[in-house]
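subagent[fold] <- orchestrator: predict structure for attached chain, return tokens only, no commentary.
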Amino acid sequence: MLSLIAQACLFGGFAVSMLVTWAGQFAKRIAKNSKLAGYAIAAVAIVILASPICLLMPKLSVSTAGILQAPDARFYEGFVYNESSAIPQNCIVYTYDPPLFNLNNRTAIQIGDMYNTSQLAKFEKQYGCIVLDYGYWCHTPNSLCGYANRTFNLTPIRTANFSRFGYTYGFYYLTEK
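subagent[fold] -> orchestrator:
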């Protein structure tokens, strides 16, 4: 579930804190045993505040099953976790999601840096090979992967097909055309 529950609870926490403070001040004015009165007022305020939050919980969350791209994104993430070991460790990966590769012990950089040809040449000398992660975001409109297709030869390292959308994901060596 993707949700706004944490944000609602955080906001609710601030509201409860304010209500408890106000309840304490109010109780001091009207009661001899202000501590007990303050707790009673705070309890009533918490119930009044918590009830709508609890009742609205289903409205504050979205099932990931209702998000069209969710299975696709999960498939892609699984592909990276299971297949990134096929990328030689001396390579640098151009990707939309560098941390995903960093978590899998691979050096990675944002795909947008591919336009920097002097940096690309430097990396080619420094790392020995350049790899393109042709992942989930390469199948979206205006992706930068089209530039890679037009500019470089792509030699597959590992590929996989996701049948729901017919997308092919893969890791490709980039070499000059």
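orchestrator: received. Logging for downstream: The longest helix spans residues 5-30. Residues 2-62 form one domain.
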